[in-house]
Structures are given as structure tokens and as C-alpha cells.
């Protein structure tokens, strides 16, 4: 299989050799999975998101068993993270949304062109369960830059949990002295905005909750990395193409 893979890559790499030494070639493999735990819903205050920002992006080409091209999905038998995916599934705590790999040139830039990622069902609001962008650039290290949106239909229990959390926050705010200046807003590691609404009516609780993950990661090649979020996680491995 490895011999076939090397032979299949020869025409592609020869055709792309004219690009020059500015780009180095890597395979990128990504697993994205949802957290099924309802208790994490009320950990933060989630801002309303009702659309995915439009960006100029690359769409991955479908699998071609005969030849592998840049920005083309790799056949399943050439993916490496099957064991990790199976462990995620067997845990019962998570649901795999996306598992895919591709080959691409990686330029030495802090502003790489993103790849469009969509997966899962289309929700009632017209959005995919998973939508957004992934970009890979490099400097001294490789830079993995996600801008991903995960949509989740809230259950009645989750909606009730959010309302109780909002009521508790409001009661706490009413018992504290009111400052003249506006209440502070902070950015959390997960990308959610942590702020306190004036009352429970100010907290928007939708039927479908959409959250955003923009936590970039600096990494070395051939290392498996995990990017955490309360509602969904990302596993990524980037390997050089020799």
C-alpha cells in the first residue's frame, strides 16, 4: 500500500514542482466530534449566531482512487487515525461529525487560504451541524487555524438548564452593587463571550444553539494534537509528504 501511495503521488508532485521551494507539502488529517454531555451547555453564556461568515475558500475535491491531487480527499485506507476515531465512538460520550484527510502545499504565511468544511445533517435553520473553515500555514512551526461552527438542537432539559443558570446569574447580579460603567466582557478559551445579562429576558435561548471555535494551534508535524471546546473537539495530525 505504501509503495502504491508513493507511485500515485509521483505525477502530482512532478507537475507541482514548478511552484518552487516556498511551499512544502503535507497531508492533513482531521477528526471533529460532538460532546453529548448536556451539563456543559450551561457552563458559559453563548452569543447568538445565525449565519456562517462568507470567505473565499477552497473546496476539497472528491476521492479519486487512481490518483491523488492537492486538496483532494484521501481514500479511507490512507487515513491514519482510525483507532482514535473508534475510541471516540466507543466511549459513548461523543459523536464523530467529520473524519477526513487531504494533501496540500503549505506556504510560509500567517494568512493561509482556508478550506471549507461541512458535515452532518442540515438543521431546520439551513445550517449544517458542522460548518466553517480550516487553514494551515507555517512559520517556525505549522499553524492550524480553525474557524468552525457547530450547531446543536437543544433538548427541553438543556433549555431548562440554561434558564436556571440565567436566573442564578441574575439573582447574583441584583445582590451586588451596580457599577456606573458597562459590565466587562471577556473572551474565553472556547471562543464564547462570557458576560452577564441584566435579567433573564436578555438571555437568548434558541431552539438550535450554534457555537464557534477559533482556537488556533501551533504544532510540529507528525504529532497528534487535540483542540478542546465544551461542545465539540478537534483532533489533527499533519505529516510532511516525502
Oligomer: single chain
Number of strands: 12
Share in helix:
10-25%
Instruction: Give start-end ranges of low-pLDDT stretches.
Output: 13-21, 183-189, 193-201
Separation of the first and last Cα atoms: 16 Å
Number of helices, counting only DSSP H or I runs of 4 residues or more: 3
Please state the average pLDDT score: 82
Sheet/helix structural class: alpha+beta
Approximately what portion of the residues adopt beta-strand conformation?
A: 35-45%
Shape: elongated
Domain unit count: 1
Question: What Rg do the Cα atoms give?
Answer: 21 Å
Element order, helices and strands? Answer: HEEHEEEEHEEEEEE
Main β-sheet, in a few words?
6 strands, mixed
Identify the notable features of this structure and list them briefly:
242 residues; alpha+beta; 6-stranded mixed beta sheet; 4-stranded antiparallel beta sheet
Q: Helix and strand layout, with pairings?
A:
Elements: H1 2-16, E1 23-35, E2 58-59, H2 82-91, E3 94-107, E4 115-122, E5 128-138, E6 142-153, H3 156-174, E7 186-187, E8 193-194, E9 208-213, E10 217-219, E11 224-227, E12 232-240
Parallel strand pairs: 2-4
Antiparallel strand pairs: 1-3, 1-12, 4-5, 5-6, 6-9, 6-10, 7-8, 11-12
In short:
It contains three helices and twelve strands; from the N terminus they run αββαββββαββββββ. It has helices spanning 2-16, 82-91, 156-174, and strands at residues 23-35, 58-59, 94-107, 115-122, 128-138, 142-153, 186-187, 193-194, 208-213, 217-219, 224-227, 232-240.
Amino acid at each position: 500500500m505504501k509503495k502504491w501511495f508513493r507511485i500515485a503521488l509521483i505525477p502530482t508532485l512532478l507537475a507541482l514542482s514548478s511552484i518552487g521551494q516556498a511551499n512544502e507539502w503535507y497531508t492533513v488529517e482531521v477528526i471533529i466530534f460532538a460532546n453529548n454531555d448536556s451539563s456543559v451547555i450551561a457552563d458559559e453564556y453563548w452569543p447568538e449566531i445565525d449565519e456562517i461568515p462568507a470567505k473565499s475558500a477552497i473546496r476539497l475535491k472528491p476521492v479519486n482512487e487512481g490518483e491523488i491531487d492537492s486538496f483532494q480527499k484521501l481514500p479511507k485506507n490512507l487515513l491514519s487515525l482510525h483507532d482514535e476515531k473508534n475510541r471516540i465512538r466507543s466511549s459513548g460520550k461523543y459523536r464523530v461529525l467529520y473524519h477526513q484527510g487531504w494533501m496540500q502545499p503549505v506556504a510560509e504565511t500567517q494568512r493561509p487560504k482556508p478550506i471549507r468544511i461541512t458535515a452532518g445533517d442540515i438543521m431546520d435553520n439551513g445550517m449544517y451541524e458542522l460548518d466553517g473553515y480550516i487553514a494551515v500555514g507555517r512559520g517556525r512551526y505549522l499553524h492550524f487555524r480553525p474557524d468552525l461552527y457547530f450547531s446543536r438542537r437543544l433538548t427541553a432539559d438543556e433549555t431548562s438548564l440554561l434558564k436556571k443558570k440565567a436566573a442564578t446569574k441574575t439573582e447574583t447580579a441584583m445582590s451586588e452593587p451596580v457599577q456606573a460603567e458597562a459590565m466587562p466582557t471577556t473572551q474565553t478559551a472556547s471562543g464564547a463571550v462570557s458576560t452577564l445579562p441584566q435579567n433573564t429576558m436578555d438571555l437568548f435561548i434558541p431552539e438550535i444553539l450554534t457555537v464557534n471555535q477559533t482556537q488556533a494551534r501551533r504544532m510540529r508535524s507528525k504529532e497528534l494534537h487535540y483542540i478542546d471546546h465544551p461542545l465539540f473537539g478537534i483532533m489533527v495530525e499533519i505529516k510532511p509528504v516525502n
